[in-house]
Amino acid sequence: MWLFYALLNPVVDASRNVFSKRASKNVDPLLVTWFNNLVPTLLLSPVLFWVDFSFRPQFLISITISGLGNIATAILYHRAISKGDISEVVPMLSFTPLFLLFSSPFLVNEMPDATGLAGILLITAGSYILNLKDYRRNFLAPLRSLYRNKGSRYMLIVAVIWSISANFDKRGIQASSVWQYVFCINLFVVTGTTIVLLAKRKLQFSEIKKEKTNLFLVGILTAVGFVAHTFALSLTLVAYVIALKRTAGLISVLLGHFFLDEPHLKKRITGAFIMFIGVVILVLF
């Protein structure tokens, strides 16, 4: 069952990216981030009536660390996109599963076996190649850009924070329940991003009206993704869940090509194939 949830997550994530990209053309990206957590919080609010909440110390620690991390990554992510070419900054996220191989053994006492490690490494490599414009000529471009591009450095920080926060997500779930955790983490993040929006004076409802359909679809898909993500984390290793989540890049390329007329599909076939082999290894072995 973990496989169903783990694979549903990147499908939903990639679909959400299509609507997020459409909305970002007319509204501030921070507003997209706000809706990203506001709608799930509202949709999940009925859990207040049928879930027995348990606020153990481990839950409070986990929700605080992961919540602050997710607020920081939301801000850094958009700064990264604004300060660098997407082809240079986005591949930095490919290293999240790799970083988890170092953080998970210490934080949740999880370490993949040799076969799982091979699958994770292939998905990481495939995801990196998939996000390059031309991997034959510029394979190391994103890594080189760390020295001259703030955007790449910001995105690498995002990858590091996610590799830590994902472990605390699992610890928070273990100390409470899937439904309690997914509601509380969204509430925490939407509260934090609301404060940021108010401080920056970017909470403009006139802008929201322009893209309300796309924004609500972003939020609804995020809600589904959060539930799938937390259920997957509760059932298997964090590194496996995050590695499969990175396949959203492959799905995004396909959706971008067919729905947004984005180019470079043929150039990304190599990365897609490597990712596919990695997924097969994780699933079948």
Describe this structure in words.
- The chain has one domain.
- The chain has 16 helices and no strands.
- With 285 residues, it is an all-alpha fold.
Overview features:
285 residues, mainly alpha, 16 helices, globular
Radius of gyration: 18 Å
The total of helices stands at 16
Spatial separation of the terminal alpha carbons:
16 Å
**Largest sheet, described in full?**
none
Summary, kept brief:
The protein is an all-alpha fold. The protein is built from 16 helices and no strands.
Task: Describe the secondary structure blueprint for this structure.
Layout: H1 2-24, H2 29-44, H3 47-50, H4 57-83, H5 86-89, H6 96-107, H7 114-130, H8 135-138, H9 141-144, H10 150-174, H11 178-200, H12 205-210, H13 212-235, H14 238-245, H15 248-259, H16 269-284
